[in-house]
Structures are given as C-alpha cells and as structure tokens.
Amino acid sequence: MSTTATPLAINVRGLTKRFGERTVVDGINLEVPSGSICGFLGPNGSGKTTTIRMLCGLLTADAGEGTCLGFDVRRQAHAIKPRVGYMTQKFGLYEDLSIEENLAFVARIYGLDQVKRRVDETLERLGLTGRRKQLAGRLSGGWKQRLALAACLMHKPELLLLDEPTAGVDPKARRDFWAHLHELASEGLTVLVSTHYMDEAERCHLITYIAYGKVLVHGTSVDLLAASGLRTWEVSGVEQVRLTTVLSAPEHAARWRVVPFGARLHVTSVDGADLAEFLAAHHFDLKAVEIESGLEDLFISLMGEARDNY
Fold first, then answer.
1. DSSP for the chain?
2. Which of 187, 234, 240, 307 has the most CB atoms less than 10 A away?
3. Whether the predicted pLDDT of 290 surpasses 90
4. CATH second-level architecture of 231-292?
5. How confident is the model at residue 303 (pLDDT cuts 50, 70, 90)?
6. Domain(s) of CATH 3.30.70: residues in the chain
7. Are 56 and 81 within 8 A, CB to CB?
8. Cα–Cα distance between 174 and 181 in angstroms, integer?
9. d(C-alpha 10, C-alpha 73), whole Å
C-alpha cells in the first residue's frame, strides 16, 4: 500500500517521551495510510503502549511533531480523542453489567443520540445480539474481546488503536477478530494494532517493529524480508545442541541466530553467510535445508542487533 497515493491517518516524526531520566520512546517516525492495518510489533517494554497513548492524546510527547487524523498530536489532543477508538490490553468495561448495558453506558459517555438504535446496530454487527443480556464478567476471553471492540466502535471512530487485543484469546476468536478488522479497514477505518503473534503480523498491510523506544523497520512484510538479506535454514540431526552452543559463542553470535522450532532448529545468517560451509568446516553431522526467511526470523535478527535503553 503506497503512502504517497493515500492520505496519512498517522504522520509523526521524532516522537519522544521520557519518564524521569529514561527515554521510553526515542524519536519515532511513523506513517500509516488511511484505511490500512498497521501491525505494531516489538518486545515488552519497547514503547508500543506509550506511543499509542501519545497518538490518541492520553499522553503528551516531550518532543517531536506530526498529526493524527489531521490534528497536531501535541496541541490538538482534544480533537483527536473523540475520533479514535482505543482498546487497552486489560478489559476495561464493567463486569457486573450486561453486554447491552455496557454498550449503552459507552454511548452515553460519548453523548450519542438514539442510544438504543446504536446499541442494537453494534450488537448485530459484532454478533453479540444473542448474548446481549449476559453479564460481561461471565464472558470468555474471546467474547470479552469482541465486546471491547464493539465499545470502541460505538462512536464510529476514524482510527482504531488496539493494544495487544488478542492476548490470551483462542485461535478461532483471533481469526474472527481479524476478519472484523479487515472488514472495517475495507470501509476506510485505519487500524494500528500491537501484537506478538507473527501470523497476525502477516495479516497487516504494514508492519512497524520497535525495540527499546526506536523504530527498527517499517514497511510491508514482503519488502522488509526482501531488504533484510537474511538466509535461513531448517536444521535436523543429533548435534543440534552442540550447534546451538557453538553459534551462540561470542565469536559467532553477531553473524548467526539460532531458535528451536519443534524438533528442529531455525538458523539464520545475518550477513548472507552459507550454513552448509560452516557445518562442513566445523565437522557437524547435521542436515540443513535452506528455507524462505519469515517474519519471526527477521524479528529475532533485529532483536539481536537492538540495544537496551534502560
């Protein structure tokens, strides 16, 4: 998806946030075209939640500039907030109210008219009509997630900011959730969603990966993998433990990344080196089959190069 042909829902440069002496978000640049789904990835503590809160006006950046939905992120937070739906990591609705009562409450918070009609429409769209009288506290994780999304959509926002919305949710509920996101994006809604799941990252139009407050890569998954220069092998055999030990040693760790995948290893070369030559030179009795590098291989490689900002 081209950022030049489509207006940008998010366009920020140098976005920075400090807490005391620690810089949690360090000069982030981010462009997200309207109507796209941007996956926001990175390890815990990388600054994803802080960035999301700055974009929706809950936190004020200490430095940087740019716009969210055409409004200045540092000076016009009051105009951004009502146009954004923000879904937090923790379920934030009332567990002793029913689904229907929670949505009616949210509608009144936003000052919406025709509350009953809006609640009915939202229940229907998210497949919640049959459960409308059920208490939120008795819902499974997947249904709570669906209710939280419904609440975010009550006021018809232009941008959804979703902070790890599928954590702890079963695979079917995750698939259903992403089907809803793509339907919403096809109607013009922009989505920025943080996730740790690689299969979800692959469903995004764009990916932004941050670590320790800095953006490491931004683009489509195809472009990022093509530009990475990584080579990856699937390795099997009885000497996997020895290979892991050797490649993790200081003299090799900068060049290779090793990760167990079931009964096999994924070994990734950061600089294009040939694993077959390495195995022969070090007399390993292992089978190595070169495979196409995936997003997980890329992100593991990026984390090996990142520097902690603590």
1. --TTTS-EEEEEEEEEEEETTEEEEEEEEEEEETT-EEEEE--TTSSHHHHHHHHTTSS--SEEEEEETTEETTT-HHHHGGGEEEE-SS--S-TTSBHHHHHHHHHHHTT-SSHHHHHHHHHHHTT-GGGTTSBGGGS-HHHHHHHHHHHHHTT--SEEEEESTTTT--HHHHHHHHHHHHHHHHTT-EEEEE-S-HHHHTTSSEEEEEETTEEEEEE-HHHHHHHH--EEEEEESTTHHHHHHHHTSHHHHTTEEEEEETTEEEEEESS---HHHHHHHTT---EEEEE---HHHHHHHHHHH-----
2. 240
3. yes
4. 2-Layer Sandwich (3.30)
5. confident
6. 231-292
7. yes
8. 11
9. 9
Per cent of the chain over pLDDT 90 is: 76
pLDDT digits (tens, 9 = 90+) for 136-166: 999 988 899 999 999 999 999 999 999 999 8
Q: Distance between CA atoms of 180 and 166, rounded to whole angstroms?
A: 13
Q: For residue 37, how many other CB atoms are within 10 A of its CB?
A: 24
pLDDT tens-digit profile of 54-86? 999 899 999 999 999 999 999 999 999 999 999
Q: Where in the chain is the domain with CATH 3.40.50.300?
A: 8-225
273 — pLDDT class (breaks 50, 70, 90): very high
Structure tokens belonging to residue 29: 């640049």
Task: State the average pLDDT over residues 105-114.
Answer: 93
> Both ends of the chain: CA-CA distance in Å?
35
- Residue of 214, 222, 161, 207 whose CA lies nearest to 38: 207
| CA count, 13 A, side-chain hemisphere, 242 | 10
Please tell me the CATH superfamily of domain 8-225, with its number.
P-loop containing nucleotide triphosphate hydrolases (3.40.50.300)
Token pair belonging to 133: 């009288």
Sheet containing 264-269: order of strands = 256-261, 264-269, 231-236, 287-291
